[in-house]
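Why do we care about 3D structure at all? Because function follows from shape, and shape follows, mostly, from sequence. That is the central idea of this module. The next example makes it concrete: a single protein chain, its amino acid sequence, and then its structure expressed as tokens.
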Amino acid sequence: MRIWQKLLTRSSQGQEQKTGRDEILWRLTWRYAIFAAVALAFIAEFGPASFAQRTSSTSSKHGFNVYGDVKVDESQVTDDQRPQVLDVILYTKGDMVFARQRISPNGRYRFMDIFSGDYYIVIESENKEIARVSLFISDTSPTDIKQDIALEWRATGFRSGNGPGVVSVADAYNRSSSNKSLYQKSAREIESKNYPQAIATLVGLVAADPGDFPAWSDLGMLYFIQKDYEAAENSYASALKVKPDYFRALLSQGRVQLARKNYERAIESLEAALKLDAKSASANFFLGEAYLQIKKGSKAVGYLNEALKLDPVGMADAHLRLAALYNGAGMKDKAATEYEQFLKTKPDYADRKKLEEYISTNKKQ
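And the structure:
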């Protein structure tokens, strides 16, 4: 199936504007997307030594609500070609999952208590990206922001050079009628945050069809949310057994292995992911983090700098990791330079004063 995208943006005050789309389209940067709960669980596992506070990726002001209708024109496809469920994912510009919801086509999503900053809203079907919208929330934005997205679902079409990713019939996973019902059931359970029941439903689905790699990936995501990291890793491994070149699964598997402190295995997964997509800022960042954890700072530097090159704003936290590395090696001038670069990108960082004091003390004149 092919997708044409029409983007409709308007605030709760009735203002409308076209939203642009930055071209950081992953060949697919995992987006076996981990729920916001997964992203937060990962950050919690590593703590502030690995990531700046969530407010360092966005402004410190929060309390914004983003919602909208995802309208799908299905008039040009048959019943078998229609999408069953859609994932609506809120990413920071550094490809970190902030929030995620699963909805039915023509349904409404809502993300609550969002920080101000730069985001993408990504729509996925069958774990394939089909639409991407840039969203900027300033401190002066209205509290309630409405972002509608309209999609036209077609059996044939073309890929626009500047448009979103397109899903073809070959990309979708074909299920029997009974398995489609199970997958839709799991979608409703995930949407209602009934994760234990969703796991049970998906376990039944993969038992009936072990080749259903999207279902295996959903299981990995859910197990990660439940902090059952061993089960999450096993689920991603099952997805990769069916589809070894599944970039998203490789990236997510690497993240799980990092959370489990299996750094060598994480490096294997993330290096394999980078072979599929060398331009993934997230894969470079996490690979750099893995090398930091095994005390191979010289290798970490290259990957962290590459992440910054690919996404200087979204990957700004890499400056903090580099600064910590240089500081530990006694290279305080270089650490001060990294802190300077970080503050240029994130001028509203909560601990700005502390970093400025470090820079003032250690920066060579």
